[in-house]
C-alpha cells in the first residue's frame, strides 16, 4: 500500500474545497477490481462537484471525477484480469464512490466496460460520459423509430461536450443537424463537426408556446428548462426529443400540447445507473459511428494539475467540445 495523487474534495467552512493532494491507497473503498487510471475527462457534473456550486458530492472525503479509462492492476472478479483495458462511467463515482481524478481507482468489476478494439484510452475519455450520454440519446431516438428521412434534428448546447459528440454522430449517420448554441462565434467549429444549420439559443430561450411552428423531427437536449420546452413545442408530429441535461435548470415550463396534439415523445436519458448491456451497446456504436478525426478536432488535453481551475470554466460556458485529463 502507498499513496497516489488525487483531487480530494472535503467539507469546508463555507461549502466544499477541492485540492490536488496525496491519497492513501488504504482509504480506497470496497471493490473487486483495482485500476491504474490513465485518462479521465471533465464533464459539466465534474465542474459542479469541483466548485461546490451544486450538492453533487454526498460523501466526504471524496475523490472527484465521474469517469476513467485505464488498465486493471488487481482483480478478484472473474470477468477481469491484470492488463485488461477498461472504461468506467458513472455508478456514483465522484458522488458516493471515490472517483476518477486519481492515479488509482477501486470499483466493482460489474461497472466496467472493455475498451473497444481500435480505441485508445485517450479516445475513450475524449468521448467520456458526455459522449456516452450523447450516444444513449441517439439510441433512444432510433428506438423511437427516428431516421434521417423523417427530417432535421436539433441539438441544443451544441458547442458543449454532449452537443459536440451528438452533432458529430448524427451527422455521420446522415441526419440534417440543426445546432443551437449561445456561442455563434463557434459557427465554423460546429459546421466542421457536422452541423448543417445553426440557430442562436436566444430563439429557444423565451417563454414557450403550447405549440409553435414545426421545425424538426427530433432532438437531443442537454440544456433543459425553457430551451427544452421550446424544442418540444417545435417538434413535428410523431417526433421525439431525448432529454439528457439541465445546464439551464431542472424546471420544464411546458404544456401537454406537444404530447397530446402532436404525439411527441419526451425520452429521458439517464447515464449514471444505466444497465451494463446498454453501456456496452453505446460504446460499440461510438467505436463505429463517431468519426475519430472529428473527435480529435473537438478535444483539448489538460493535466491533473489543471482540473480544478478548468472546472469553473466549463460551468461558465468557456469550454468548447471535450476535455481529456492526462492522469499520469
Overall description:
- The protein is 28% helix and 27% strand.
- It is globular and about 65 Å long.
- The two termini are 18 Å apart.
- Helix 2 crosses helix 3.
- It has two domains: 3-115 and 298-326, Medium-chain alcohol dehydrogenases, catalytic domain (Quinone Oxidoreductase, Chain A, domain 1); 129-268, Rossmann fold (3-Layer(aba) Sandwich), CATH 3.40.50.
- The strands form three sheets. Strands 3, 5, 6, 7, 8, 15 and 16 form a seven-stranded mixed β-sheet that branches.
- The chain is an alpha/beta fold.
Question: What fraction, in percent, of the residue positions are helical?
Answer: 25-40%
CATH architecture verdict of the largest domain: Alpha-Beta Complex
Count of helical segments?
Answer: 9
Distance between the termini: 18 Å
Q: How many E strands? A: 16
Q: Can you tell me the CATH topology of the largest domain?
A: Quinone Oxidoreductase, Chain A, domain 1
Give a short account of the largest sheet.
7 strands, mixed
Overall shape: it is: globular
Total of domains = 2
Strand content: 25-35%
Q: Keyphrases for this structure?
A:
single chain, 328 residues, alpha/beta, Quinone Oxidoreductase, Chain A, domain 1, Rossmann fold, 2 domains, seven-stranded mixed sheet, six-stranded parallel sheet, 16 strands, 27% strand
Write the layout of secondary structure elements.
Elements lengths: L2 E9 L4 E9 L8 E9 L2 H8 L10 E2 L3 E9 L9 E5 L14 E4 L5 E2 L6 H24 L8 E3 L5 H12 L4 E5 L5 H6 L4 E4 L15 E6 L3 H9 L1 E9 L13 H5 L3 E4 L7 H14 L2 H6 L1 E5 L3 H9 L6 E5 L2
Helix pairs in contact: 1-9, 2-3, 2-7
Amino acid at each position: 500500500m502507498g499513496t497516489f495523487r488525487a483531487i480530494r474534495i472535503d467539507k469546508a467552512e463555507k461549502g466544499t474545497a477541492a485540492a490536488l493532494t496525496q491519497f492513501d491507497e488504504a482509504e480506497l473503498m470496497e471493490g473487486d477490481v483495482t485500476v491504474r487510471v490513465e485518462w479521465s475527462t471533465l464533464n459539466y457534473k465534474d465542474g459542479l462537484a469541483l466548485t461546490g456550486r451544486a450538492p453533487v458530492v454526498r460523501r466526504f472525503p471524496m475523490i472527484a471525477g465521474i469517469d476513467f479509462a485505464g488498465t486493471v492492476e488487481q482483480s478478484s472478479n472473474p470477468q477481469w484480469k491484470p492488463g485488461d483495458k477498461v472504461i468506467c462511467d458513472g455508478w456514483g463515482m465522484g458522488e458516493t464512490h471515490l472517483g476518477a481524478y486519481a492515479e488509482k481507482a477501486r470499483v466493482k468489476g460489474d461497472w466496467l466496460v472493455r475498451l473497444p478494439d481500435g480505441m485508445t484510452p485517450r479516445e475513450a475519455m475524449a468521448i467520456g460520459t458526455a459522449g456516452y450520454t450523447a450516444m444513449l440519446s441517439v439510441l433512444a431516438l432510433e428506438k423511437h423509430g427516428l431516421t434521417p428521412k423523417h427530417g432535421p434534428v436539433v441539438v441544443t448546447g451544441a458547442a458543449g461536450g454532449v452537443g459536440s459528440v451528438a452533432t458529430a454522430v448524427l451527422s455521420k449517420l446522415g441526419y440534417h443537424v440543426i445546432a443551437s448554441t449561445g456561442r455563434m462565434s463557434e459557427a465554423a467549429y460546429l459546421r466542421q463537426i457536422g452541423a448543417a444549420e445553426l440557430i442562436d439559443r436566444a430563439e429557444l430561450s423565451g417563454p414557450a408556446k403550447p405549440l409553435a411552428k414545426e421545425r424538426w423531427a427530433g432532438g437531443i437536449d442537454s440544456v433543459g428548462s425553457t430551451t427544452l420546452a421550446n424544442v418540444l413545442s417545435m417538434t413535428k408530429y410523431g417526433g421525439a426529443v431525448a432529454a439528457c441535461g439541465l445546464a439551464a435548470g431542472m424546471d420544464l415550463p411546458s404544456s401537454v400540447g406537444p404530447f397530446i396534439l402532436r404525439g411527441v415523445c419526451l425520452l429521458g436519458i439517464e447515464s449514471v445507473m444505466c444497465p451494463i448491456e446498454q453501456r456496452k451497446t453505446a460504446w460499440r456504436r461510438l467505436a463505429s459511428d463517431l468519426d475519430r478525426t472529428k473527435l480529435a478536432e473537438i478535444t483539448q488535453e489538460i493535466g491533473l494539475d489543471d482540473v480544478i481551475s478548468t472546472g469553473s470554466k466549463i460551468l461558465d460556458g468557456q469550454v468548447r467540445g471535450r476535455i481529456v485529463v492526462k492522469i499520469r
